[in-house]
Amino acid sequence: MKKIAAVAALAAATALSAPAYADDLAGKVQVKLLATGVLPDGKIDTVKSINTATTLGAAVAATVGPQTQANDNVVPTLAIEYYATNNLSIETICCFTQHHVNGAGGLAGTKLVDHVLILPATVTVKYHLPLGAIKPYLGAGPALFVVFGEKPGATATALGVTSVKMSNSLGVALQAGVDIDLGSSGMGLSLDAKKYFIKPSAKFYQGGTLALETKHQLDPWVVSAGLFFRF
Q1: What pLDDT is recorded for position 2?
Q2: Is 135 a residue whose pLDDT tops 80?
Q3: What's the pLDDT tens digit per position in 188-215?
Q4: 14 phi and psi, to 5 degrees?
Q5: C-alpha span between 64 and 107 (Å, rounded)
Q6: How far apart are the first and last CA of the chain?
Q7: 225, 37 in Cβ contact below 8 A?
Q8: Are 45 and 217 in contact (CB under 8 A)?
Q9: Beta 201-206 vs 43-50: how paired, if at all?
Q10: CB of 148 within 8 A of CB of 165?
Q11: Could you write out the DSSP letters of every residue in 127-171?
Q12: Architecture category of domain 24-230 in CATH
């Protein structure tokens, strides 16, 4: 019994003095530097109001199958992640992405909204599968799209629109990806994909008169690749 107790004590002491392994992630911070593709939909979900007494309202009302599409963009992204446990982490991202909204369907070729700058404030809770150096994960969380600097496009301006306002919008993001350790230095490769469900509205004004209000199914895919540094 004394020998068994001595062996157990030696094993415990060895475990306490051993260096942490790469999978001992609780309490660590991970910073990601990423190249990110923002791939929005932007189609009209609902025409909320239309004033046919205005030039734009009359043009849209006379159009069969009016539709819109937002353009894609590629931007640099910074992500910061905190590991609450070995398998659970909280991540937030920071980037600005610029878009414009063009007509599609019956509005094909029209330029409706120009220079929309979006801050996609996002926080996700992620679960990491414990597979050693390769760590797939799933995540979900709230997202707030904050909109700046929107301007009427050339076609909207030609139809008498003097200003356009797109709403900030609260939605949700679903996430999947993988982190791959490159050795034991705390650096690695990260691949990530998020699907957002966001429906902002757009209001087009002719002077002080609301000509058109639409709700858009923005719903972008946001795909990223880059390096992480874990501390």
Answers
A1: 43
A2: yes
A3: 999 999 999 999 999 999 999 999 999 9
A4: -65, -40
A5: 8
A6: 43
A7: no
A8: yes
A9: unpaired
A10: no
A11: EE---TTEEEEEEEEEEEEEEE--EE-HHHHHTT--EEEEPPEEE
A12: Beta Barrel (2.40)
